[in-house]
Hints:
heterodimer; A: alpha/beta; Rossmann fold; 12 helices; 19% strand; globular; B: alpha/beta; Pyruvate-ferredoxin Oxidoreductase, domain 3; 20 helices; 23 strands
Amino acid sequence: MTYIAKPGLHHPTLPKNALCYTRRDYEGKVSTLCAGCGHDSISAAIIQACWELAIEPHRLAKLSGIGCSSKTPDYFLGNSHGFNTVHGRMPSVLTGANLANRELLYLGVSGDGDSASIGIGQFVHAIRRGVNMVYIVENNGVYGLTKGQFSATADQGSVSKRGVVNTDNPIDMVGLALQLGASFVARSFSGDKQQLVPLIKAAIAHRGAAFIDVISPCVAFNNHAGSTKSYDYVREHNEAVNRLDVISAREAIGVDYAEGELAEVRQHDGSVLRLRKLHADYDPGDRIAAMNYVHAHQVRGEIVTGLLYLDPDPHDLHEHLNTVATPFNALGAEALCPGAATLEQINASLR
Amino acid sequence: MTLPSTRASRPGLQAVNDFVVKFANVNGSGSASANELFAKAILRMGVPVSPRNIFPSNIQGLPTWYEVRVNERGWLGRRGGVDLMVAMNPQTWDADVAEIEPGGYLFYDSTRPLPPSKFREDVAVIGMPITELCNAAYGDARQRQLFKNIIYVGALAELLGIDGAVLETLLGEQYRSKPKLIDANREALRMGRDYAREHLRQPFGLRVRRADNVGDRIFIDGNSAAALGCVYGGATVCAWYPITPSSSLAEAFQKYCARYRVDKASGRNLYAVVQAEDEIASIGMVIGAGWNGARAFTATSGPGISLMTEFIGLAYFAEIPATIIDVQRGGPSTGMPTRTQQADILACAYASHGDTKHVLLFPEDPHECFEFAAQALDLADRLQTPIFLMSDLDIGMNQRLCAPFAWDDTRAYDRGKVMTREELEAGKPFGRYLDVDGDGIPYRTYPGTHPTRGSFFTRGTTRDAYARYSEKGADYVDNMQRLLRKFETAKTLVPPPLLRRASRPTALGAIFFGSTSPAMAEAIDALEGAGVHLDTLRIRAFPFADSVAEFIAAHERVFVVEQNRDGQLRSLLVNEFGIDPARLVPILHYDGTPITARFIARAIGEQAGTRAPAAPAAAEAHVP
Lengths: 351, 624
């Protein structure tokens, strides 16, 4: 596969956001994934969310591991720095990048093989450290790039394209993230853009570890009868607990809503999350209840989607480490080097 | 007590300011601080000492030793042999007694009687009922245990002529914040001295005499020194995973940062230390921070390097600055974690899959740990690649007398080739992997620099000079050739090797590096005394300077002295220069203890075909 650039011509009537950028300004290279791949829908949702939020593309860094999902950062935000790291190790690289410059937005894109198998340790520890990031797992239950082996999120009893039945228990990334203290946890479906785009916007606005598990069918290796990650299966078993609207700080709040119970949550950056409850018994402010709810429905074969947990007052790694406001990469010797006179004192104390 | 407190059967060794004392203790008994007090007191009297901890992988119960070389001439390597054994551990008694030089001294706790078969006729025995004294003086079990150590230090001070006032001053410094402990320790010290003065009056041939041979040198361990070098060199991110013998380096960095890296106005930290979940995450964080323009390092040991190797290859190929401090220890991973070796040379030089070569720096002592750590951070940015600081347990975890640290306040950090927003705005062309200057080093941009120019996608897979994905063989080959050019450039930036010529022309040469340095200096001196003349070259970095090949070419035979089994530096020399292996004679020491001057002198002496000196002159001098 070689590199394909998209033509730079823009239609003059394309709508512009607050920064006068069109949606095209948030695109990347032409995708090399299979036609119909759920991952491309997620890339489109990321582009839409960033455009709607009027994010300066270069102020976002996109990082990934290895696999189909991890190839996608090349296909969106072409003016952002990107880093395709090694398999399962994106979280540590993102953590280090975040330490070096706290002012950028960090988007980690990973897959179920990358984050639930080889990289589960790094996933777990980045979440529990509260790294300020959006962590998206494009979850299709298979290894696509190596042609269809089960991943660790494949449901027990699901059948591979070759007819093999998976006997291992699945790892539920949402359950893990809740248990590990992620301050924003959501699940969505690549085929439900209406749900996914606001979730990504809310996650970007969140200052803390924001995790989104996106079920993203693999059209080549996991979209057949017997799969629990196929388009048909997810559509039939999707239980959305809420619908979200994100109103950024600079917008006037005055959107009309249809009937239904509404809850508003203000985030640190001033944005307001307007949550329409679809299930009266679901409370995204209660971590323990969320874990129970998600797991009870999982046992019934239902995939609970929506904003599953939100801590409106999160703490991130920089707060834990009490770091200065200035990005480390902007500090010079005058701030960092204690100097010769101090070194003489140190020498004197060592005699 | 059935044995007389003293039974010197033969005249003892006589030596002033030139002997080896070894303390055999039980780990966790509080002996470390007392033994350190002993060494520091001699140092404060102006006599150079070099102490070495030989300790187990254990918190409590296993044998541990502390060997103190006292040498007025300033030899700081291990000599070999023990003149005075302070045998406080029954578990290792037999081996400890056997190690004493003929005519040497054995100091022990005589509270419990020992049969005569447990002693040697040719060793003078000094028994002191330490436990009995402690039991009489202290009611508390922990106090009985801890003050035992101070009591023997007091007695030894009396025997050796160590100034009591110096010891008391040191105790005052050590317990400045806990005055109660000062008095209690001074009391124990006096108890030991008084007992020795009254009861241990026998001919004792080892003396410490005031001298002025320490000068302005400082006394510090290499891990602390390297940590301080990282502070001075501008490291802001330290990601690490605990592993002996490197853990104290990250902890020292944290300690120094808490003191020197807190922003006064805001009270917030100008650093971040993250204890990662493993070494893989440690190096991942360092690479992430380096990619994003912060100076970052990790400290680890051999097994950690093994875990990091995939990431090291990524950093080499994606050209990301990273500083890796490898405090080497005995291999394999679970074998000799608390013993020293120089056995990660090849593992680091060629770390990772594919064609990779890395820059290594070899410090000889804490002074160079400081210098090279700061320099490694500059080199990492300049060369955009991982830089390895190859310390070891002997340097890292032992306090060593060395030249004081120095810093030039006009020194600026070399951040390497980083294209700025202004340059991009002005239209300066940017290709992440373009060799614009012909030195193999491309320009990079930090993420977030410019809205529309200078962004790129970093990958481990092949890309062209503009960082665009490519699977073309020609793009791959071009890039690999450029990386070789960059490695050539590295040669001109790393610390050069240091040549020392023999007093007369010679066809023999010796190459050594790192912690072998002090023992090597003493061995060369002893060999000269025995008529074996060698030019020496201390290698301080890989890639090797061309002068290394010239040195080898200029000598018929070159001894390569290393602390590993396979002659790893020798292999690297043979491989990189295409040298006939027969020209390079390996001299290898790898039992986990630091190499001794005697070992080197004997091994080279035998190989050189001349009379092998039994021991360096300094050691022979006081044998009666």
